[in-house]
User: Fold AMP nucleosidase from Alkalimarinus alittae.
Amino acid sequence: MNARITPEGSLEVLSRYEVSLLKDKSKKGLYDIFRQCALAVLNCGNESDDCKAIMERYKEFDIKLVNQPRGIKLELTNAPASAFVDGEMIKGIKEHLFSALRDIVHAKSVLAKSAELNLDSSSGITNVIFHQLRNAQFFTAGALPNIVVCWGGHSISRQEYDFTKKVGHELGLRGLNICTGCGPGAMKGPMKGATIAHAKQRIHNGRYIGISEPGIIAAESPNPIVNELTILPDIEKRLEAFVRIGHGIIVFPGGVGTAEEILYLLGVLLHPANKKLPFPVFFVGSKENASYFKMIDTFIGGALGEEAQKRYKIIIDDPIRVAKEIKKGIDEVAHYRRVHRDAYYFNWLLKIDPLFQQPFQPTHENMANLQLHRDQPVHLLAANLRRAFSGIVAGNVKDEGVRRVEKFGPFEIHGDKTILDPLEGLLESFIKENRMKLPGKVYTPSYRIIN
Assistant:
């Protein structure tokens, strides 16, 4: 499809400098990253987690900015036809498209040039995330804590997907809002369940928040239920955004991306400064998933110890209990923040080590040099394990990572045998259960464990 569209959402005007950035096809410009994110948004509903294949399929796709005296328009050429109905772009997709434009422009033209927001410091990175979320209008002053972050795999069975909907339904009946990675599978299910529950409760301002980043968005195109979308500059800022705005976290079954999220979360919560900070975390699944979470729990116990296992609770086959317990945990979060005078809408008190914040480039050299040994604080070991999973995710589905593996072979992972053995066992289980790629696709490992 070819089309010209006007803004829908929170962006209507751009400066001449911003327009020039969006037209610039060099590495200093924003054209390439915006084209990639725009294609991901427009590809909504066409399930594929192969960024490279998507980019090659739509290699003739183009997007141009048309600047006008009364605002802006986007000119699309050879866009996915599924984004249109009777020649008109679907409204939700149009909103997502301009959300992507808003966030990419804001990150480049404002945040990257501000001396106040120092990206070399931990507090500076947190401030960048705050400004990005505020610009996306994510904050509502005075609103009580009610955001549940739901993590889980995009490649899950129909039975697992239906279970995530049941949990989302129970959350919605209790007036809770949903935040996910915005893609399909366990990211879509809770939102779908919550929309029905909100309708039953006559809640007309339900929030279905999606948080993504340029490297993953093509593999996990925003699902159509998302009504608030933001794109953070990289995976580390995306993960921090989740834990800063979320008041509790539910983890459904998933693959290496979900394992990365779990290790990030536990590593942050294991920091000594966060020992007394309330943060409800639940690993949740149907009775068919009991063995999956036993496997995850065993891996965490072996890699990070009992203290890490104390930071979450496993609940099997009981959506009502999940909703009741996370609601109770969020009430404790609200009380703690009142007492300590912290904002409801952004968790400033949470301490995050810089190792979790600095962007990790999954090159073969960086993956081989990961510090996967026990001679370090447990929260830093979690940070390095998180990076290992992040590299495998890149090799599985991210365009740049896939191309690196095709060119130079699998990433090599080195470390202590006591860490690598359970890591290898977990990864092999993910492969056997088809959690690495969408069903119907043969998975070729992007990694090699060097024991």
User: Anything to note?
Assistant: The CA atoms of residues 192 and 428 lie 31 Å apart. The chain has a mean pLDDT of 90.
